[in-house]
Fold these 3 entries.
Entry 1:
Amino acid sequence: AFFINYYLSQKLDVSLYGEFSLLFGFLAIVSSVTLMGQATALTSVFFSDEKNGYKNIVKELNHSYKLMGYAYISVGFSLYIYWYFFDTKYSMALFILFCFALLFATAKIFFTSLVTLFDEYKKYFLLTFIMGVLSIIIIILYPSLEGFLYGVVVSGIVAMLFGVKLYLMNKQESIGDKVYKKKELISLGWIA
């Protein structure tokens, strides 16, 4: 993030760099809202299920995906209403790209958390290195707001691939007793 900020501060004019900074901060805040604390809840659920086996983790992950999906749709709809009625500066294409970046920024945080759960620290460092290098390459090739958003999308896809691969490799079938409900997952996410 530091290199991308520095690089864009040198390549963009002051006004466009200010827009990038606002977009960067807004994306960070809104992705936290759409995440709904599920990366943290995932940690609690995972270690709870580890004690009882991993039979219910798929149901709990599906609950988390649904919660994040509902939040994403709500935020996306709210942003669309704002864009449609109040914002005439940005094109529909940039708005759609921002929505994709928001989706993949949320996924990046969630699946990076999933990678850390399996104590695969070498793979975690490899993942962060790959995401960083890809983001830097995209910013160098496209030093713009769009380039930044493309970098977020690509790094989100990489995190999803790593997370899903590690989950499938480490998936264990066993008997578990507790299945966390949606309300419990929301509580676990927002408390932590």
Note: Confidence is low (pLDDT under 50) at residues 172-177.
Entry 2:
Amino acid sequence: EFITKFPNDARADEARIGLGWALFRLERLDEARATCAQKLGNVELEGERYFLAGLIERKSDRHKEAAKWLVPLATYSQPHKRSLEAKLIAGLSLAKCGQNDLAVRELSSYGSNPENEEDGALALYELAFVYLAMKREADADKSFVAITVKYPKSKFAADSAFRMGERFYLRNDWNSALRAYVFCVENSKDGE
């Protein structure tokens, strides 16, 4: 109600973002999307609007639309508090819609400076699959190996080691395959 009574008030912009987040969390995506339609005056809130709009589109499986919102935020010259996270999510969305070159750019950029280890491992893991889709097998191998070296305790490490074991096995590199499979067995969690 406040938003409609005072549409140009700075608090209305904050309320619009808060409303958008609440609707997003309630999975009322069409209504949440509508809250992101109007440009906001405050730069920080405008960045939040871009981030929220990107998440709404990603949750709606509209990955190309998600990337249209997230890439500008991820690459904006003045970093926003959500810029780093936007890089990861933009990279994942770009990979989903087959824009592999752009996905590599965003995932590589995020992977070199992740917010946390699990997200760093996720970026490298997804990057490996993008490389495989691009037939860049050596780069995919480097990504899978990097996960086991940089993030050996992540939930992606055992699977990455297994995939490397398979790749070594197919190349008849038995010693490397054995090491990868041993890593996989030793680092699997709860029989995964």
Note: The CA atoms of residues 165 and 177 lie 4 Å apart.
Entry 3:
Amino acid sequence: SPIYGLTIGQEVNNLMTFETGFYVNNYGESYRIEGEDFGYSASNALVAYQIPLRLKAHLNLLQNKLSLVTTVGYTFAINGDYGSSGSGSSFVRSSFSSNNDSTRTEYISTYSLKKTYGLIEAGLALDYKFKNSFSLYLAANYLTGLSRVVEADVKYWINAEPEQTGSVFSNGDYYSIILGLKYPISNLWTK
């Protein structure tokens, strides 16, 4: 699911930058019935409002043009769907099986486990500076949650077998791949 937002940063020195911002993250949820290639469910889950605090270290790779950037950070998140729940069901018949295997699932998701939660972030990026002060960057980050945010109770039936149950949970973990442009806004008033 896409994440929307804005980031602002302040260079501490030539090697370090402090960054913060505001993001709207539309989480999705999915699960697969283990051992079955055709038993799967995916849906929208919760909307989170996130405020990251990051420290970035820059390692010059090529004549002050190309840098490797490492990121560590903490994100404070507000669960926009706190107090709500979701439910759904699906029926899937395998198109790969010769004996018409099928899976039926039902689930109830609870989004009210935490109103606020925290995420720890680590990442790597490549940052290329152009002559006009713009930078193009490509970043890969991983954020891991500190507490359980979503829980889904799942009931499923494979073919005519008896009902089986399971639980799926999330701490809000996610990977992000970011392609972006940066411009030092201080250039607007220092030129």
Note: The chain has one helix and eleven strands.
